[in-house]
Design goal:
Elements: E1 5-6, E2 15-16, H1 18-21, E3 37-40, E4 42-44, H2 51-54, H3 62-85, E5 91-94, H4 96-101, H5 103-111, E6 115-118, H6 131-149, E7 155-156, H7 167-173, E8 178-179, E9 189-190, E10 201-202, H8 212-215, E11 218-219, E12 222-223, H9 233-250, E13 253-255, H10 260-263, H11 269-281, E14 285-287, H12 290-305
Parallel strand pairs: 3-13, 3-14, 4-5, 5-6, 7-8, 8-10
Antiparallel strand pairs: 1-2, 9-10, 11-12
The structure holds zinc ion (ZN).
Zinc ion is lined by residues 44, 46, 119, 123, 159.
């Protein structure tokens, strides 16, 4: 690994480490209103998008389709009910193919005060796309969000955990304020500045908080490879709460990569119920949409990152 380059989840291409560019604070973060840390709950509503859609096998792959569609059809409404019980709102990264096919549940997200963000149209692997192809995905996604939901997202999470070196600048041209795609830090930072203006804000997430690592298992093909069982739900609950509390203790920014089709099934909902309760018990932690955290980061540190 080259000095100053942080690996992303796929380990393919990196982004500049904030400390080497000195574009962000190097000491304790002073969060607004005296809060000691910040949290953005984030969910990726992939639905049946992904490989089977990209290779056009989806219409012939009904098992994959039904597994995926369980997310927007059954799991998201259950999650929205639970969030409302805890008086929490979240950020939902949604491929616009899902927005087109399940508009009702997406309209409910917006109506109940949640944030929606870009996540490709068909959950494309951005690293494999040319810049023109990435631009076409963004143009199409922007149009769908406007037409179906009447919103223009400010956030983006790359569907595949990677992108190409030009993606951050492309996203800025679409008015995107922040990304939550990289893995290399536990606090917000800026991607490189463009034309004398601060770059995209990165709100990094961690594989530790991706529910696939503990709760997903597919028999054919075996995925995640090497995993032979689903984790004990009580252990998952304790792990996730411990992660949150560690970030709170150190005054950092914490977010999640949770998928309703994975972690919002009836028995697993208790894990989230306990996690949400633990977050709510910390009235010293700022719980906000990812977009609000990114905007605050720009307001507070944008000037020093504009070079
Ligand atoms: Zn996804």
């Amino acid at each position: 690994m080259a000095v100053g380059i942080e690996p992303n989840g796929a380990g393919i291409i990196g982004t500049i480490h904030p400390f080497t560019r000195k574009t962000t604070v190097e000491s304790a973060i002073r969060w607004p209103d005296g809060y000691c840390a910040a949290v953005s709950l984030a969910f990726d509503v992939d639905g049946p998008s992904g490989d089977a859609m990209l290779d056009d096998s989806l219409p012939h792959n009904l098992r994959y389709f039904s597994e995926g569609s369980y997310g927007p059809y059954r799991a998201v409404p259950r999650l929205l009910d639970l969030l409302a019980q805890h008086d929490l709102t979240a950020t939902f990264f949604v491929p616009t193919w899902v927005v087109e096919h399940w508009p009702g549940v997406c309209e409910r997200m917006v109506a109940e005060g949640h944030e929606v963000g870009y996540h490709g149209h068909r959950h494309e692997v951005f690293f494999d796309l040319t810049l023109d192809e990435q631009q076409a995905v963004m143009e199409h996604s922007k149009a769908v969000f406007q037409r179906v939901l009447g919103v223009t997202p400010r956030g983006f999470r790359t569907p595949s955990g990677d992108w190409s070196s030009d993606t951050a600048a492309l996203l800025r041209r679409f008015g995107v304020l922040y990304s939550s795609s990289m893995r290399g830090d536990d606090r917000p930072y800026f991607h490189p500045a463009v034309d004398g203006r601060h770059g995209l804000v990165e709100l990094p997430a961690r594989w530790d908080m991706d529910d696939y690592t503990a709760l997903a298992y597919f028999a054919d093909p075996a995925f995640p490879s090497g995993l032979d069982r689903i984790s004990d739900y009580r252990v998952v609950s304790r792990n996730w709460i411990a992660e949150f509390e560690g970030y709170a203790r150190e005054g950092l920014f914490w977010t999640t990569i949770l998928h309703p089709k994975v972690s919002c099934k009836p028995g697993r909902l208790r894990i989230l119920d306990e996690l949400f309760g633990a977050i709510r018990a910390h009235d010293d932690v700022w719980v906000a949409h990812a977009g609000a955290v990114a905007q605050w980061w720009v307001d507070t540190h944008g000037q020093e990152a504009s070079v």
